[in-house]
Amino acid sequence: MLSTETKSIILSTVPVLEKHGEAITGRFYHILFSEHPELLNLFNQTNQRQGKQQTALANAVYAAAAHIDNLSVILPVVQRIAEKHRALGVTPDQYPIVGETLLKAIKDVLGDAATPEIMDAWAQAYGAIADVFISVEQELYREAAEQPGGWRGFREFIVRDKVKESEAITSFYLEPADGKAIASYTPGQYLTFLVQVPGQPYLQRRHYSLSDAPGKPYYRISVKREAGINGLPDGIVSTYLHDTVQTGDKLQASAPAGDFKLDTTNNRPIVLLSGGVGMTPLISMAQTLAERGDTRPIVYIHSAIEGSVHAFDRQLRELAQQPNFSYHVVYERPQGEDERHPHFAKSGFVDRDLIERLAPADATFYFCGPTPYMRAVYKTLHAMGIEEDRIRFEFFGPTSQLVD
């Protein structure tokens, strides 16, 4: 237990963290990779170059400091991060390394302002926070390994089929190389892949949402080929999957993970909002609801740049034949016959008027897509007065980006 004095010192540093948080975490990663280069195999280097991980860590540290006297407040954040840590393969022995490095970074950035009292308080606080993460993650490891068809670490899968869904998105059907059963999952969850891309010095780990209903003898992921824009390089792993991986090749994945899950504990109407490849977890949800014979109202609103990059359209048209399922398409820049799509709703972007017109007022809203899309949807739902417990989303980045 942390003493009252220690908590008071930590709380007094919150304004400093708010001001210098990203400088501290930037310094943290510099020290970490200099002293422990083997950990480069654990981190997404693209996110490192774009500063996403620095921002995410700064926000996590800030949140922990701000709620140090009641860490239960941040348990939802802990759970989300712990899911990703379990999927990536983070282990308890790595936490002391992170703690030592974080303290060095705080001292380097704050200089003389980082008094011995502050450093000692932060050492104690980090230990308490690390214990929470380790406890949650160990339970997740146990659950992943002990569930029917489950496993610990990474397991080898064979690509049994590779299907082009649109000009940008390709699906990969994966069966276990050992021929044994595979773990089920809740629609909305993802697989994490460990990939050695030729020419890259470090292993790459990436999360890809499962895009089919559970209960099949295979997993399906659907991946967008990430083309570089604004001077950024092409996606290392997505390009490798699209251009190099073929039927019969093998990939390594950890057991399904993630806290973005379809909630079947109530009978509220469901609204699924997706932008681009963000539709992958929502397709899993839609297909699952159909296969289970769910009769509640389901509204699916998908946004794409234009028709050629719109995946799973045929599947959604088939689902829309059910009386409780309505399907609506928004094309940012419709081309050719796009506006003649039988489910075409509007050109441009999804907006409040469209959502209010199509969505039942008492629905639970699930959404996923690129950051600008998600920021717009998140703000719109709040402006509509939708309670937080009816807003669910998947976002592989700092949640704070949605509310800035």
Automatic annotation (TrEMBL):
Top-tier EC class: oxidoreductase
FAD-binding FR-type domain mapped to chain residues: 152-263
Keywords: Detoxification, Dioxygenase, FAD, Flavoprotein, Heme, Iron, Metal-binding, NAD, NADP, Oxidoreductase, Oxygen transport, Transport
InterPro entries with a match to the protein in the record: Cbr1-like_FAD-bd_dom, FAD-bd_FR_type, Flavoprot_Pyr_Nucl_cyt_Rdtase, FNR_nucleotide-bd, Globin, Globin-like_sf, Globin/Proto, Hmp
Active site residues per record: Y95, E137
Location of the region described as Reductase in the Swiss-Prot/TrEMBL record: 149-404
Family annotation (CDD domains): flavohem_like_fad_nad_binding, Yhb1-globin-like
Site feature Influences the redox potential of the prosthetic heme and FAD groups, where: K84, E394
Co-factor binding comment: Binds 1 FAD per subunit. Binds 1 heme b (iron(II)-protoporphyrin IX) group per subunit.
Cofactor: FAD; heme b
Any Gene Ontology biological process: cellular response to nitrosative stress
Record-annotated site: Involved in heme-bound ligand stabilization and O-O bond activation: Y29
Pfam families, A to Z: FAD_binding_6, Globin, NAD_binding_1
UniProt-listed PANTHER family: FLAVOHEMOPROTEIN
Entry-linked HAMAP family: Hmp
Domain notes: Consists of two distinct domains; an N-terminal heme-containing oxygen-binding domain and a C-terminal reductase domain with binding sites for FAD and NAD(P)H.
Family under the similarity heading: In the C-terminal section; belongs to the flavoprotein pyridine nucleotide cytochrome reductase family. Belongs to the globin family. Two-domain flavohemoproteins subfamily.
Protein name: Flavohemoprotein
UniProt organism field: Alicyclobacillus hesperidum
Gene: hmp
